[in-house]
Design goal:
Layout (H helix, E strand, L loop, with lengths): L2 E5 L2 E4 L4 E8 L7 E7 L6 E6 L6 E3 L7 E6 L4 E6 L8 E8 L13 E2 L3 E6 L1
Parallel strand pairs: 2-11
Antiparallel strand pairs: 1-3, 3-8, 4-5, 4-9, 5-6, 7-8, 9-10, 9-11
Length: 124
């Protein structure tokens, strides 16, 4: 079992930055691919970014490219999502999730473990 806890959300003005953290316990996260998803009020949960087990590869939704960066620190058993140039449309609850293999990374149902989410609110 892997327990995931997100942190780092908050209220920020448009153009600002936040760094989300996804800390794992129970097992080392180093053998899992990790994805970030978000869900805005009244909308479906959507894929944001993903990173391979060793951090060697990342993938982003189109609107996140050039603004968001996913990284991981194996020593801290933590994955990060650095978000810059934030826009009001980035407002959502952000979730991290873990899966064993780096495939179907945009598919919500493909992930085995989920965190509880952290709220990100971007004001205009």
């Amino acid at each position: 079992q892997v327990q995931l806890v997100e942190s780092g959300g908050g209220l920020v003005q448009a153009g600002g930055s936040l760094r989300l953290s996804c800390a794992a316990s129970g097992r080392t996260l180093s053998s899992y691919a990790v994805g970030w998803f978000r869900q805005a009020p009244g909308k479906d949960r959507e894929f944001v970014a993903a990173i391979t087990w060793n951090g060697g590869s990342t993938y982003y939704r189109e609107s996140a490219k050039g603004r968001f960066t996913c990284s991981r620190d194996s020593a801290k058993n933590t994955v990060y999502l650095q978000m810059t140039s934030l826009k009001p449309e980035d407002t959502a609850v952000y979730y991290c999730a873990a899966k064993k293999y780096y495939r179907d990374i945009e598919t919500i149902g493909a992930y085995d473990y989920w965190g509880q989410g952290t709220q990100v609110t971007v004001s205009s």
